[in-house]
Amino acid sequence: SQQGEEDPQALSIQEGENATMNCSYKTSINNLQWYRQNSGRGLVHLILIRSNEREKHSGRLRVTLDTSKKSSSLLITASRAADTASYFCATDPAGGTSYGKLTFGQGTILTVHP
Amino acid sequence: GAVVSQHPSWVICKSGTSVKIECRSLDFQATTMFWYRQFPKQSLMLMATSNEGSKATYEQGVEKDKFLINHASLTLSTLTVTSAHPEDSSFYICSARGLQIGGAGGNTIYFGEGSWLTVV
Q1: Alpha-carbon dihedral of residues B74, B5, B22, A32, nearest 10 degrees?
Q2: Contacts of A93 by beta carbon, 8 Å cutoff, 6+ apart
Q3: Least confident window among A52-66, B50-64, B76-90
Q4: How far is B83 from chain A (nearest CA, A)?
Q5: Under a CB-based contact definition with an 8 Å cutoff, are residues A27 and A2 in contact?
Q6: Could you give phi then psi for residue A71, rounded to 5 degrees?
Q7: Which of A79, A43, A44, A39 has its CA nearest to residue A59?
Q8: Residue B85 pLDDT greater than 60, yes or no
Q9: Which residues of A are less than 8 Å from B43 in CB distance?
Q10: pLDDT at residue A2 in the model
C-alpha cells in the first residue's frame, strides 16, 4: 500500500513550545487518525477526524483536515518532555469493506527538550 | 475499554525455525484483524488482512507461504513466521476491528502492544 508523507521527519523543540506535524495522503478516506509511538513500544491512538470534519480538538491536541488538499496537521500545544515520541498519521480508506485497513505515514520524530 | 493482547512481546529464535505470534481480542469479537510490520526507524506496513473463518488477504510483496495467518475464532488471529531469517527481525503489530461488547456500537479499531522478533 502507498505510504503517506509526513513532514518534518524530525522535530526538536523546547518544553512549552508548540509542535506542528503535517501529513499528506493520496486516496479518498473515511477518516484520518493520529498515533503516538514511544521508542520500541506499541501505538497510542490520539485522535480521529472524519472526512466530513475540518478540525478537532482533544486536550492539547488540535488536528485539521483538508480533504481538497489531501492533507492534515497535528498541533501539540505547550509541549512537554513526555511528548517525546514518534507521531504517525494513518488514513482509513473510503469504502466499507476496507474499514480499519490503515495506511501509515512515514512519521515524525518529535524530541522535546526539558 | 477494548483490549487487544499480543503474545509474546519479545521473542528470539534461531534462523530456520518458525515462530508464532498471537493476537487476541479480550472483550470483543474481532471479525477482522490486520497484521503490520515495522522495521526500526520506519513506518508500519500492512502485511495482511485476516478475516475470521476465511483465508487472509496479503498485501503485494508479502509471501503468504512464509507468513501464515490463521483466524480461527472471533477472538484470535495468529501470525506464524516460517523458516525465519535475520531479515525477518522486526516489530510485528496487529489491530482488530469489531463490535465492542456492551459498547456504543459501530466498528472500532484497536491495536495490540506489538511483538519484537529477533532472528539470530
Answers
A1: 80
A2: A27, A28, A29, A30, A101, A103
A3: B50-64
A4: 24
A5: yes
A6: -145, 155
A7: A79
A8: yes
A9: 3, 88, 104-107
A10: 40
